[in-house]
Design brief:
With 527 residues, the protein is an alpha/beta fold. It contains 13 helices and 24 strands.
Length: 527
């Protein structure tokens, strides 16, 4: 059997950071396991090809029918391959709000206050604006301004300003509220995944083994300690040994799945699938939180936004040529080019809604092709009260987990979303966006709560930020402690968005990378 000091399961946003930091100095033998491939396809590296990312790079999960969404099944894209979801996402660089982390600490996660995590965000970051009190300049994760944003995206920011809403050029600085263009995880016009940041620079190092197309079947547990990983490669099962420990970084869906396949989880659920119970931990797979999102859409008479007309197609064809030659132009778009954070309910400790503005018509996560030009405006509930679960659908590691976000189960969530959608329409009705000649694709009486709620339940879905299923805490029920070590077993850490006790107020890629950075330090401190 092959033997390593550490095995990291999952080469996504957090896992790449953990593996890279553990391996970079050459003193530890590290193995990174990833179910997908290398993700070096041009369609992944080119931001504007995001709608055409290969299916092999996306798990394309679905939820169980959602009671709060009128029985609809939701779509749950998750990155597969090195870089994980940072290889398929909209590249928006957002950390969340200071209050999020201070609240984690106040509720028992000592050492996770904002002032504790800020140095790790800065350590990871290479911001093209340079370093300051809030930003890093020398890290492996490149963060860039957008240099070719669509005029409609600029008009969105101007429209918000016309409503006397604050304009912001940095959502990760001293305050989060406001509207502006997002910074993105790109370098010289290409997508910069977590794997490109942490894994590819040390590929080929003698102490660093990268195993792609490798399915983890379960953890090997002996005498209360995780000693290895059982994997499946090329149709054959084998065991890899971990002398010092294993870091599980498979994401909010697959980390609890792997724990449950290994006998760690709700005992009755494991027994129902014929799995021997090693640790009865009801919190594994519970506490699922996600940002429920509603997309308002407008068709425009203007052909300036991205669209599928002949002119729009020719413009994109020219942009592809420009990008291949110079790595500049329209094909650097993250699509979610602009947005903002604002409070729509009274008494909130931080903004409670986030907007993503897309200078194109977006229907059904981009899976429905729409002719013509237009723009879309996402509004998502930043701190939802609804809680869901992840469970096993089968004892086969290759089977998809059973995902139930339980969207809009708590009436407080739809109240926030209702107010957020109303503000979306106010922004769209401001003169800077009216100049594009917009027509509402889903008209509704905005003053009629019942009609608006019905439309929301018919069309809302995830904005791709699942967290919380292996939650961190100081209490006995927490899955991991505040150093990300699994409670009840030696030699196992969990490092990804699943450990968040509560979802952050923003996109989850940057916080997941921060968690990976911190975990590497925790692991090394335990040596």
């Amino acid at each position: 059997m092959e033997s390593f000091d550490y095995i990291v399961i999952g080469g996504g946003s957090a896992g790449s950071a953990v593996a890279g930091r553990l391996a970079v100095d050459g003193t530890r033998r590290v193995c990174l396991l990833e179910a997908g491939g290398r993700n070096d396809d041009i369609r992944i590296k080119t931001p504007g090809f995001m709608p055409f990312i290969p299916e092999k790079s996306n798990y394309r999960y679905e939820t169980v029918p959602q009671k709060g969404l009128n029985g609809r099944t939701g779509y749950q894209p998750r990155g597969k391959g090195l870089g994980g979801s940072s290889a398929i996402n909209a590249m928006v660089y957002i950390r969340g709000n200071r209050w999020d982390y201070d609240n984690w600490a106040a509720e028992g996660c000592t050492g996770w206050a904002y002032d504790d995590v800020l140095p790790y965000f800065k350590r990871a970051e290479a911001n093209e604006r340079g370093g300051d009190d809030f930003h890093g300049a020398g890290g492996p994760l490149f963060v860039s301004d957008q240099h070719s944003a669509n005029p409609a995206s600029h008009a969105f920011v101007e429209a918000a300003a016309a409503l006397q809403l604050r304009t912001s050029s940095d959502f990760n600085g001293d305050r989060q509220d406001g509207f502006g263009l997002y910074q993105v995880t790109q370098r010289k016009g290409e997508r910069w995944t977590s794997a490109r940041a942490y894994v590819e620079p040390i590929r080929g190092s003698g102490n660093f083994a990268i195993r792609t197309d490798t399915l983890v079947e379960k953890l090997v547990i002996e005498g209360g300690r995780v000693t290895g990983v059982q994997i499946r490669r090329g149709g054959k099962s084998e065991t890899l040994l971990a002398r010092r420990g294993v870091v599980l970084s498979a994401g909010a869906f697959n980390s609890p799945q792997i724990l449950m396949l290994s006998g760690i989880g709700p005992a009755d659920h494991l027994q129902a699938h014929g799995i021997e119970v090693v640790l009865d931990r009801p919190a594994v797979g519970s506490n699922l939180q996600d940002h429920i999102d509603y997309v308002s859409g407008w068709a425009t008479t203007s052909d300036v936004p991205i669209g599928s007309t002949l002119k729009g197609t020719l413009r994109m064809a020219a942009a592809i040529v420009e990008h291949r030659r110079k790595r500049t132009g329209v094909m650097t778009t993250p699509y979610a080019e602009a947005g903002g954070f604002w409070s729509v309910m009274p008494g909130t400790p931080a903004p409670d809604v986030q907007w993503h503005f897309v200078p194109a018509v977006l229907e059904d996560h981009g899976r429905e092709k729409v002719k013509g030009h237009g723009f879309s405006l996402h509004a998502c509930v930043l701190r939802p009260e609804s809680r869901g679960t992840v469970r096993l659908g089968s004892a086969d590691a290759a089977a998809a987990p059973v995902i139930d976000p339980n969207f809009l189960d708590d009436e407080r969530d739809i109240a926030v979303l209702r107010a957020g959608v109303r503000l979306s329409h106010r922004i769209a009705e401001a003169p800077p966006l009216q100049a594009f000649g917009p027509t509402d694709r889903h008209p509704v009486d905005l003053n009629d709560d019942a009609a608006l709620d019905a439309l929301i339940r018919d069309r809302a879905d995830t904005v791709y930020h699942p967290v919380g299923t292996c939650r961190m805490g100081a209490d006995a029920d927490a899955v991991v402690d505040t150093t990300l070590k699994l409670n009840g077993l030696e030699g196992l850490w969990v490092a990804d968005a699943s450990v968040m006790p509560k979802i952050v107020s923003g996109n989850t890629n940057a916080p997941s990378i921060m968690i990976g950075e911190r975990c590497a330090d925790f692991v090394m401190a335990a040596e």
